[in-house]
Amino acid sequence: MSSRTDAGVSVRMNLARIDLPEAVSRSIDDTKILRALNDHLPEDVVAWGARRVPVWSPSRPVVSRKYYYRSEISRRWPIEIDMDSLQRACSVLEGGHDFANLCRVEEGRDTERKVEVCEPWINSEGRPIGIMVCAQSFLWNQVRRMSSAVTGVISGEIGVDELEDALNNPHNPVDLGMDPPEGLVLWEIEHDLLDGMGLNSTPDTSNFSTPPQGLREHDIWTGLCKLEMSSMIHTEWINQYGLF
After folding, report:
1. Of these four, 22, 138, 171, 243, which has the most CB atoms within 10 Å of its CB?
2. Domain tally for the chain?
3. Same structural domain, 36 and 89
4. CA 188/CA 170 separation, integer angstroms
5. How many CB atoms lie within 10 A of CB 217?
6. Strands 112-122 and 184-190
7. Are 48 and 65 in a shared domain?
8. CATH number of the domain that 162 lies in?
9. Buried b vs exposed e over 137-173: b needs ≥16 C-beta within 10 Å?
């Protein structure tokens, strides 16, 4: 597999390399491969694209991975958003940084990453609902902690300078929180060998509801939010790839 995700994270697109005997590979096309896979996959997993690639082509080294995080699943996400503050918090996270304070550190693993894009996720009604992040690779929990940090800035819990300090001084531990996995979706992966397969699609948020203000009401709404995220993925599979 190309990418790992935390339990509870949605995935629109992931990559897997399948090795077949040469005699089998010569006798079948992409359509038959997809039919065979979908006949045996569980109902919450769908194979929607296939490409022939050279033998032993690696699936993990990719050009980029794109994630969306629906930050409003957190009760800390404000009802009224200051866009300048949101844009500033996102821009701070772009570029090369040591993300030791914004990930789950694994022993022996480098915590430096380059975030190509971090920008507000705006729904179909023009309302900011979270962030979109794109990079070649990510660390465990990185996007969820980035979302929590951005939420902290726009809610006034922390200043932008505190976020900058967490990045600039990675050896001084600071906990900026971590948002729940259900708000995260791995949206697309760009790979050199796939000729753009699966790219240039944006999430359809037209059915997304607005979170209520009360804490108890928000807890109940969280269940609806999870269903809307799942529905977004399944609708994408059906509409974009004509699977059914």
Report:
1. 138
2. 2
3. no
4. 29
5. 11
6. unpaired
7. no
8. 3.30.70.660
9. ebbebbbbbbbbbbbbbbeeebebeebeebbeebeee
124 and 105, same domain (yes or no) = yes
Q: What is the DSSP letter of 220?
A: H
Task: Please determine, for residue 138, whether its predicted confidence score (pLDDT) is greater than 70.
Answer: yes
Q: Are both 45 and 123 inside the same structural domain?
A: no
- Confidence band for 244, pLDDT divided at 50, 70 and 90: low
Strand order through the sheet with 95-98: 10-11, 184-190, 64-69, 128-135, 112-122, 95-98
- Both tokens assigned to 2: 């190309």
Do 39 and 119 have their domain in common? no
Tokens of 175: 């906990």
Q: Which stretch of DSSP H or E encloses residue 114?
A: strand 112-122
* Rg over CA atoms, the chain: 19
Q: Do 153 and 159 meet the contact criterion of CB atoms below 8 Å apart?
A: yes
> In the prediction, which pLDDT does 238 show?
86
132 contacts 66 by C-beta, under 8 angstroms: yes
Q: Which residue segment(s) compose the domain that 27 sits in?
A: 18-52
Q: Is the pLDDT of residue 243 over 70?
A: no
